[in-house]
Design goal:
Keywords: Kinase, Phosphotransferase system, Sugar transport, Transferase, Transport. Its main location: cytoplasm. This protein has 3 helices and 13 strands; from the N terminus they run αβαββββββββαββββ. It is mostly beta strands and 168 residues long. It has a single domain (2-162), classed as Glucose Permease (Domain IIA) (Distorted Sandwich).
């Protein structure tokens, strides 16, 4: 019974927004070897055109970086979605980032999570390219992945399904 519930939960698709509007990129095109090599997991990247990181789906903030440049959202299907703003932004020590949520908060799809001072971060970081990565992707298959220009709140970004049932 637990395996059936977990399998049903895991097949819930994640289909909507990531962070801000902007051009989407495959992770291998990201100018960071860790993300480009999919060492953190598979997903996609975006060149943000707006300053608000929004929740790609309903879930719980399971981790929020002390420097507010990244967070992990655990979705209803169990997927752990790492949202990482920019490249080498941890070195900014939190400058340019304002968290609008806290670890443990339940969030709704489209809810504002982090405000970014794009000008300040762009001047100091390697790149503003931001990543959405499925951190526990070994349990999920990415059935669909968007490309082109994303519109916050409108563009379906990806669809995930469990590769096998897990027990909880």
């Amino acid at each position: 019974m637990a395996a059936q519930l977990s399998e049903a939960r895991a097949s819930i698709p994640i289909r909507r927004v990531i962070c801000p509007s902007g051009p989407l990129l495959p992770l291998p095109q990201v100018p960071d070897p860790v993300f480009a090599g999919l060492m953190m997991g598979d997903g996609l990247a975006i060149e943000p055109l707006s300053s608000t990181l929004i929740a790609p789906c309903d879930g719980v903030i399971s981790q929020l970086a002390r420097t507010h440049h990244a967070l992990t959202l655990t979705a209803a299907n169990g997927a752990q979605i790492l949202l990482h703003i920019g490249i080498d932004t941890v070195q900014l020590g939190g400058a340019g980032f304002t968290a609008l949520v806290a670890q443990g908060d339940s969030v709704r799809q489209g809810q504002a999570l982090i405000e970014v001072d794009l000008d300040a971060v762009a001047r100091q970081a390697t790149s503003l390219i931001s990543m959405l990565v499925i951190a526990n992707g070994e349990h999920y298959q990415l059935d669909e992945r968007a490309s082109g220009l994303a519109q916050a709140g409108q563009t379906p970004l990806l669809r995930l399904h469990a590769m096998h049932a897990t027990t909880t």
